Amino acid sequence: MTRNRNQEGFTLIEVMIAVTVFAIGILAVAAMTMRAVNGNTSAAISTDSTRWVSSQIDTIMGMDFNDPQLAAGNHGPIPAGNAGQYQVGWTVANGTVPNTRIVTVTITRNDVGGGQIQTTYTYLKAQNVRTWE
């Protein structure tokens, strides 16, 4: 079989190689998209959990110094977030400075990858200081 030199086009092998290279490129883009979606989901969950713990910290810091929930020891965990997807708890210890308490708030959440992530915030709660005139 002779081939006419004026014929133009691609052979079947060339087309198969081109389709294979294209498919590999599409799969790489799909993998990057999935990683980006997981990253965005993880960031959204982290932001939401931080908002919940911030709200709990505001509540704790607004409590009276002698409130039972500010007694030394562990408190919580309480469910937080939509459908209780986070657990917020806090530990109170007497501070080294008189009339202060060290409040450590911990939030536990599930990560996109299936593990658990725990974030801890520590604050100092002082009894109201009164001045005499």
Poorly predicted spans? none
* Strand elements, count: 4
Helix and strand run: HEEEE
Mean pLDDT: 85
Helix content: 25-40%
Count of alpha and pi helical runs:
1
Any idea what the shape is? Answer: rod-shaped
The fraction of residues assigned to DSSP E strands is 25-35%
Q: Structural class from helices and strands?
A: alpha+beta
**Strand order within the widest sheet?**
1-2-3-4
- Alpha carbon gyration radius: 30 Å
Distance between the termini: 113 Å
Main sheet summary: 4 strands, antiparallel
Textual characterization of the structure:
There is one protein chain. The chain has 133 residues and is of the alpha+beta class. It has one helix and four strands; from the N terminus they run αββββ. It has one helix spanning 12-61, and strands spanning 73-80, 86-94, 100-110, 116-126. A hairpin with a 5-residue loop joins strand 1 (73-80) and strand 2. The mean pLDDT is 85.
Write the layout of secondary structure elements.
Blueprint (H helix, E strand, L loop, with lengths): L11 H50 L11 E8 L5 E9 L5 E11 L5 E11 L7
Antiparallel strand pairs: 1-2, 2-3, 3-4
Task: State the gist of this model.
The chain has 133 residues and is an alpha+beta fold. The chain has one helix at residues 12-61; strands spanning 73-80, 86-94, 100-110, 116-126.
